[in-house]
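User: Okay, second chain of the day. Same drill as before: sequence in, structure tokens out.
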Amino acid sequence: MNQNAEYSAVNDAVRGHFFRRVWHLIWPYWRSEEKGKAWLLLASVIGLSLFSVGISVWMNSWYRDFYNALQNKDFAAFTHLILYFCGIAAVAILGAVYRLYLTQMLTIRWRRWLTDKHFKRWLDSKNYYQMEQGGYTDNPDQRISEDLNNFTSDTLSLFIGLLRTVVSLVSFSVILWGVSGSIEVFGFTIPGYMFWCALVYAVVASVLTRIIGSSLIPLNNQQQRFEADFRFSLIRLRENAESIALYNGEPNEKERLTTRFGKIWGNYWALMKVTKRLTFFTAGYSQAAVIFPFVVAAPRYFAGKIELGELMQINSAFGNVQGDLSWFIDNYTTIVGWKATCDRLNSFRQAMLDNEQRAPAIAINQQGESLSVENLSLDLADGRHLLNGASLAVAAGDRVLLSGRSGSGKSTLLRAMGHLWPSGHGHIRLPQGRALFLPQKPYLPIGILRDALSYPQPGDAYSEDRYGQVLQACRLPHLIARLDEGNHWQRMLSPGEQQRVAFARAMLFAPKWLYMDEATSAMDEEDEAALYQTLIEQLPGLSIISVGHRSTLKRFHSRHVRIEGGHLVNQITGAPTAV
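Assistant: Same drill. Structure tokens below.
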């Protein structure tokens, strides 16, 4: 089965759910706290769209009178109709401008609301982390930035366009039926025959358009994914520029980027071929539509049954009816893009829902004053076991060093304590009180240095003097004068400086429990010793769980626990630790 056939099979299987899922994506905004303004704007846009249909009907009558004036060489009527047209045009321009303006206003308000809800959903329940670790969906940044933008604009455009088309179709069908007269074919009289010609012409073309362009949806989906992957690779190169430069990894990176762009290239060529076939058909269809009404109406005109003005009115009415019936053809590319956007948003939302509904395998609760790990087992995604039936008890004020070989599960145990590890079973009782985790590579948001220091609290949470004290204590006096400087601090500071900033953050936050995962790995031993000592002195009674390899860390911890063979072993007694 080829790729398109596979897509078709999957599409058929979920088609019954597609519109229901899209409805769940659309409807919440229209009953939200913004529903009053939303419905008012929508009603205004619809009203202006229907007003434009009225202008078109108005113009249809103008065509008849104008061309009759030309045929009769009636200069007075001609002059009057030109001035009349100027009035119609002025009203039409005003309506078109405000229809576009209000549509854009509604679009950006809807996008803002959806973006806010998706931000919250993505950041809640650690979705942003779990989805990256599990590979549940690709490029969530694209889903939130580009797809939500395209979804709101395309949904409004298609809905309002379709509504306008239906009203226009009814209005001009009545006109066309009235002015086209009847025709005899094989002894049968067909009333309103121009209407039936327009209907058959558009229906046949719509069916052929769907057949010719059927592969555009999967190709558009792939193109968006390949473009996002390529953009992500470029960002990764910028973020790791120094490491790549020191490795002289430019040829390797060029090969990676070329490979990713090659996927864009190949898929785009496939898109081009399908689009070329579709454009051949739609362009030919549009060109034929210009002369088709004249060809069909010509017998009645040359027979003297209608005048030039009526012929032009028939042509105008036929063009509107045929154009309305061709809405699917004209908007097929937009519909394809909209369908692909909806698919990506729905899969993104489903991935978040799946993560939220996944029952935690490890029971974690917060109670008491001590940390307790009971019968804990941790597994990797491939099924391998890291820990088996581990138990550990840490009293308030205790300081425990956790060590072991690389890959033994030290950092994974801390992730489990931080609600970040889903694979395993057992029970973790976390102590109450303020807690802070210091990862090996601290996160420093782009912006003002004081905001990076106080993260995740606001920058005004502490006084100027307090910032100066902790920077001095953490051997960062050169940063005191730069507290109000905005910069990309993760690039500006060395790894050791970044880890010292993390210690400064811990001193500001003053937690009761501090979990550190290789938090001094980029420091020299002198800085490491000084910062541990300062931390212990400034935060008396602080409980610490440290993951580290250096033997120099032992003197700052009252206990040393090592992971060996999937078990926690107390290095003082040499026996597996127990509660």
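The chain is about 65% helix and 15% strand.

User: Thanks, on to the next one.
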